[in-house]
From TrEMBL:
It catalyses: D-serine = pyruvate + NH4(+). It comes from the Bacteria. Residues 94-395 form the Tryptophan synthase beta chain-like PALP domain. One of its GO terms (biological process) is D-serine catabolic process. The modification N6-(pyridoxal phosphate)lysine is found at K116. Keywords: Lyase, Pyridoxal phosphate. The gene is dsdA. This is Probable D-serine dehydratase. Belongs to the serine/threonine dehydratase family. DsdA subfamily. PANTHER family: D-SERINE DEHYDRATASE, THREONINE DEHYDRATASE, MITOCHONDRIAL-RELATED. Its cofactor is pyridoxal 5'-phosphate. GO terms for molecular function: D-serine ammonia-lyase activity; hydro-lyase activity; pyridoxal phosphate binding. InterPro entries: D_Ser_am_lyase, Ser/Thr_Dehydratase, Ser/Thr_deHydtase_PyrdxlP-BS, TrpB-like_PALP, TrpB-like_PALP_sf. The keyword Glycosyltransferase does not apply.
């Protein structure tokens, strides 16, 4: 088939037409399988190595970022029950919300306040270790806090790092990269918030701004890095290291669930809702959770109605061979962290047999939930981070979401809904107030407040 025929066939699909009209959709993935993680043993080994590497770096992290000292230099976030939010959702829908509602607070991750503090920081640390070991300056059994010494920052300053970002990845890589001594250049898409650019410039990071969206910022970064043998490009669309950094979250969450005495099984299914941009962050987490919990974890990705790149890639089977612009969408959304038009070529195919489904949420929904979560739990997230909560609402409270539960005969009384919050603690207060005002006015318009 020619590209044109493929496009025509796709546009004849009711789901794609709804997506093209930027409507909210809920899609159950028919490609999910019972044995979804190929090369599982290999992944487990690599994820364990990533965990080990982060443990080696813990003394360095604790010493370079004192806010992580209490956690012994591990970059981790709390997992909390959000009962008030659950009551709020029950009240506003006049409908019960069976099971427990939990929030994984990656908005509170130290150093850069978003899920990117997992993958982004991990990849930079791995690079630093590789370079220093190769130069004979470091060995695996050293106390890595020596990396704060001037001889190391001087050594790393000979190297540079480039990355393309909608904001948060740049923030993570810029902060850790600059701290270690690297020269970092962040290629920022037009969506990136001004405060993120300013914060990076304050830290001595070079920020290059583009009028275009994320894909172009990445492409430019990749091209510039290619011309410089001392420049390392962090490739959000393909990097296995980034992916592994995110995947470390799996065993950490398991530990937290264990501590809450939650052991997912047939009578206590675990539902996980993750905001998705290019797919690496939620993809790494999803793969790790699938390795741990198998059929008892049900994972959904949420995207903005204007940027449903993962859903489009999975539905069409074309993965990074199609963009949301190809179906006429503009990729414009207030959820800047998710403003991605084309999915990761690594994460898309990996997610195909794993995901239970994808859904979209429009900006109004995200802002409304932002306001409600602030009111109910005094928890302030950036708009992107609410795409998880939107999924829990859809699965529990909509016909389309319920279909997934009914078809599988799932027992929901003891279900655990784990909503992944992906960013927000670094958003300036005035900006957060503005988000909240927008959310409040959306709710008023819908007569829900
Ligand atoms: C980047 C980001 C995501 C999604 O991660 P991807 O790897 O792009 O899919 C979700 N939420 C926030 C706040 C982000 O910054």
């Amino acid at each position: 088939m020619s590209d044109r025929d493929i496009h025509k066939a796709l546009m004849a699909e009711p789901l794609v037409r709804q997506m093209a009209e930027a409507r909210e959709v809920f899609w159950i993935n028919p490609h999910k399988t019972d044995d979804p993680v190929k090369h599982g043993a290999e992944w487990k080994k690599e994820i364990a190595e990533a965990e080990e590497r982060l443990r080696r770096f813990a003394p360095y992290i604790a010493s370079a970022f004192p806010e992580t000292e209490a956690e012994g230099g591990l970059i981790e976030s709390p997992l909390v029950l959000i009962n008030e939010m659950k009551k709020h959702l029950e009240h506003s829908a006049a409908q019960a919300f069976p099971g427990r509602l939990l929030l994984k607070c990656d908005d509170e991750l130290p150093i850069s306040g978003s899920i990117k503090a997992r993958g982004g920081i991990y990849e930079v640390l791995k690079l630093a270790e590789d370079l220093a070991v190769k130069a004979g300056m470091l060995s695996a059994d050293d106390d890595y806090s020596i990396l704060t010494e001037e001889r190391f920052t001087a050594f790393f300053s000979k190297y540079s790092i480039a990355v393309g970002s909608t904001g948060n990845l740049g923030l993570s890589i810029g902060i850790i990269g600059a701290k270690l001594g690297f020269c970092v250049t962040v290629h920022m898409s037009s969506d990136a918030k001004q405060w993120k650019k300013e914060l990076l410039r304050e830290k001595g990071v070079r920020v290059i701004e583009y009028e275009a969206d994320y894909s172009l910022a990445v492409k430019e970064g990749r091209m510039q890095a290619k011309q410089d043998p001392y420049c390392y490009f962090i490739d959000d669309e393909h990097s296995r290291d980034l992916f592994l950094g995110y995947a470390v979250a799996g065993s950490r969450v398991k530990k937290q669930l264990d501590q809450m005495n939650i052991k997912p099984d047939a009578d206590e299914p675990l539902f996980v809702y993750l905001p998705c941009g290019v797919g690496g962050g939620p993809g790494g987490v999803a793969l790790a959770l699938k390795l741990i919990y198998g059929e008892h974890v049900h994972i959904f990705f949420g995207e903005p109605t204007h940027s449903p790149c993962m859903l489009l890639g999975l539905f069409s089977g074309l993965h990074d061979g199609i963009s949301v612009q190809d179906i006429g969408l503009d990729n414009q959304t207030a959820a800047d962290g998710l403003a991605v038009g084309r999915p990761s070529g690594l994460a898309g195919p990996l997610m195909e047999p794993i995901l239970s489904g994808c859904y979209t949420a429009d900006d109004g929904t995200l802002f409304s939930l932002l306001y409600q979560l602030r009111a109910a739990e005094n928890k302030s997230l950036e708009p992107s981070a609410l795409a998880g909560l939107a999924g829990a609402v859809k699965v529990v409270q909509t016909e389309a979401g319920n279909r997934y539960i009914k078809e599988r005969g799932l027992e929901m009384e003891n279900a655990v809904h784990l909503v992944w919050s992906t960013g927000g603690s670094m958003v300036p207060e005035e900006e957060m107030e503005e988000y909240s005002r927008i959310g409040s006015s959306f709710l008023k318009k819908m007569g829900r407040q």
